Amino acid sequence: MTAKEQGFLLMTSPLGDPDRKVLSPAQFRVLARRVREGLRPREDRSLTEADLIGLGYAPEQARQILDLLSGQDLLEHYLRRGHRQGCVPLTRISEDYPMAVHNRLRDDAPGSVWAKGDLALLRLPAISLAGSRDIRPSNRAFAWEVGRQAALQGLVLVSGNARGADQAAQQGCLDAGGQVIAVVADRLDQQKPGRNILYLSEDGFDLPFSAQRALSRNRLIHCMGLRTFIAQCDYQHGGTWDGTAKNLRHGWSPVYCYDDGSPAVQVLTDMGASPVDLQALADFSSLPLPFRGLFDT
Questions:
Q1: Nearest Cα to 260, choosing from 234, 240, 294?
Q2: CATH assignment of 119-286, among 3.30.565.10, 3.40.50.2000, 3.40.50.450, 3.40.1190.20
């Protein structure tokens, strides 16, 4: 890990301490720019409170930044703990950080993700799947077929590792010899290593499940795939609806919903999603792409 990556973690990661008041990635970039433009390079000297005040920070903000930078021992301890569990950090300035997340989320991209498994999967083309935990049989069959077809068509499957649609798709992919990236909302260090699977978690490897983490990780799932499939969704309710609606508003990836006739699919179709059936999954590349107007960017 480079010194810059360590500095990024010190500034933006809780490092297992929920009381650490870290900087957002956007705040870190502002700091880096101010330091680069406002201070002359000097050897063997650390930032001081006076330096930061001179760069436009209030005394309280300056002390917060210096407190974060003083956490080197905490960082080293956290990295050692993660290493013992097979967990490694990828910061926004790391070579292996998922570029689709960086490019599509921009300022909203997490400062760091932690990984457990084969990092090479992050460099392969992927499709994503999301869906309800309490899933109907026909919708489960759709999720499973998305996973199977991902394997047959040479694509990594990205999903959320939750019961229901996620696990059906992941199992379909692995059964067909495919590869899976599972973005988890619970503790990364407790995931069991498996062949052809990479686990990812936002911000730390030892963070417990929370509803907020489950909602937050959905944006990563929607960003990492060339296409995103929705196996089942409840109208205006739950994480699948929330993540899909945000995707359609921001245009992270094309969305394809299983055409089960539900009110949610009808509304998502009006918002720009494409309804599809099982037969349409035989060739992902033939699926329609959303229309982009002349002045869209």
A1: 234
A2: 3.40.50.450
